[in-house]
From TrEMBL:
SUPFAM superfamilies: ARM repeat (SSF48371), Translation initiation factor 2 beta, aIF2beta, N-terminal domain (SSF100966), Zinc-binding domain of translation initiation factor 2 beta (SSF75689). It comes from Serendipita indica (strain DSM 11827) (Root endophyte fungus). Keywords: GTP-binding, Initiation factor, Nucleotide-binding, Protein biosynthesis. This is Probable TIF5-translation initiation factor eIF5. One of its GO terms (biological process) is formation of cytoplasmic translation initiation complex. Belongs to the eIF-2-beta/eIF-5 family. One of its GO terms (molecular function) is GDP-dissociation inhibitor activity. InterPro entries: ARM-type_fold, IF2/IF5, Transl_init_fac_IF2/IF5_dom, Transl_init_fac_IF2/IF5_N, Transl_init_fac_IF2/IF5_Zn-bd, W2_domain.
Amino acid sequence: MASAGVVNIRRDVDDVFYRYRMPVMLTKVEGRGNGIKTVIPNMTDVAKALSRPPQYTTKFFGCELGAQTILDDKADRWIVNGEHSADRLRELLYVFIEKFVLCAACKNPETELIITKNENIIRDCKACGQQTNVDMRHKLTTFILKNPPKKKSKSRKGTDTSTKEKGEEDQSDGAQSAEDGDALAARIKSEAAELAPVESSAIANDGWSADAEVAAVTKRTGSLNVNDSDEEKGDDPMDQLRLWIEINRDNATSQSVEEKLVELGIKDKHRTVQVVMESLFTSKIITAKELKKFQPLLASLVSPIEEKEKHQKALLGGVERLVGLTYPELTDKVPLILMELYQADLLTEEAAKQWGTHVSKKYVDRDTSKRVRKAAEPFIKWLDEAESDEE
């Protein structure tokens, strides 16, 4: 059985002695039919070589391919739904490297991502000292802003000197000392040394070919969890719900989802309505009649609750996140989605009008909120005209 081998991080560099290398990314297709998915068994090792969390690289594939992803850090499972060729994913990995790893000034991969106070993402290069902007139009930037990388600087001797808490974004911290650059270079060098050695000729001839069986992957030594905040998000019932939906969406029913909500103890929480709305539905929400399929579930979450208005707001917040962040291509379908919710008695006229005329940053950024509400104008206008006709 062939070993994975390593390749240069920069695809335009063919020097076999190039110091920055990464393992060849392996892929394996599992399942069949609607449940088919592509597993990346050594994503943790690849991401480690890039000094990026594996969540970022896997989510990038999902954004580029328009596919759902499963980011299970504890089980070290990195999955892109659907069948995708190894060559296609490896090509996208190079695109990720160019956009989110390489310094735009010197093309060196010795960078780290920094989130500024005004929520821009920059690449801070330890090699040349330049700070270059990331293209904030890419969908992945939204995910990075929600799940910022943990920053931990070390002294030359390897002892911790500071730990930056999530949310304390300060662009001035990007100006690191020369000692920090030496420390990072030493760390990258040591990590590269841990990779399985291969002959120079093997590197030149191997290219991107590799055995895709999981058995060919070395045992994981640890992984980053960018979802950590003040509390361990792995224990957050909402995150558990999202992960469960990702894994079981194809076979889920209203009853099975409701049973999971009861098991997690979150059935009556208004935030549950938002998470279900944004996580359970896909880009086929209209064409595959997903809303009709899960109407009983949504009715049980929204209708019987005394604080119905609060739950309807959460429902609309889920629509904003579904359309505004995950599936922007659904923007022109917003009136149809709202109409189905309205006709199913899941959304009242009053709640719809209130939402449609008041931009809010509670669930998405202001620009996204405006865009989704702009798309909803035909439905809001229809409600006004229907009210006038009744009068």
